[in-house]
Amino acid sequence: MPTLSLQLYVITQNFEETHDCCLGEALFFPEVTCLDDTAKNLRNVVAENGLSLLAHVPNLELARRLVAIEPELIPVEVTVEPAERNRIWRDEVTLKIPAIRWQQSRDAFIVYLPSLGIEVLANKGEELPQLVEDQVRLALFRLKATRSLKSMVQQARCRSLDLETVAIEHFAETPKQQTQAEQKPSSDDGKVLTKIGNLISGLTMPQAYDREESVQQLSDALTGLIARSVLLVGASGVGKTSILKEVVRRSTELGLGSWKFWATSGSRLVSGMTGFGMWQERLELLRKEMVKEHVILHVGSLLELMEVGRSECQTQGIASFLRPAIARGEILV
Question: Which fold has domain 192-327?
Answer without folding.
Answer: Rossmann fold (3.40.50)
